[in-house]
Amino acid sequence: MEASQQQEAVRAIAQRFVEIAPAGWARLVGNWEATQVDGAVHLNYVTLGVVDLQDRWGVGQFDFDEPLYDLVAELNEAMAASGERWSVMDLEVDADGAFRTHFGYGPAKRSQGIHDEESMGRFENYLATWVAEHGERPQH
């Protein structure tokens, strides 16, 4: 998969993430672990949004969204076709339109029941980390 095609696929994933985001979101965070079962890609995912609640920051997980899931699975398959199948993909999207993606190629941890900072802990602590970096209250 060419870099430009990969970038367009990631951009489509980020756009869908934005489309399903709650009002007032400041950052969207997703982590997808891809494993193959009987030849099909299965995704174990955590998706959350940091939201401006006016007097404080809030955070919440997203419900399952089939179009988002499908876009991520399609990216995994397309990258696999060129020998670059990732096992873990991280995506952050900021309200200003900036987004960052990281692909990991080692064993997926959460899917194997490994509960550590890399697989789950950072998401459980995401709000505290955000508040430490951005202050207790949103600046209006």
Can you characterise this structure?
With 140 residues, the chain is of the alpha+beta class. A hairpin with a 4-residue loop joins strand 2 (40-52) and strand 3 (57-61). It has 4 helices and 5 strands. The mean pLDDT is 94.
- Beta strand %: 25-35%
Kindly state the number of beta strands.
5
Alpha carbon gap, first and last residue: 42 Å
Largest sheet: 5 strands, antiparallel
Order of helices and strands: HEEEHEEHH
| Radius of gyration, CA atoms, in whole angstroms | 15 Å
What order do the strands of the largest sheet run in, or round the barrel if closed?
3-2-1-4-5
Class from helix and strand fractions: alpha+beta
Helix proportion: 25-40%
Number of contiguous helices: 4
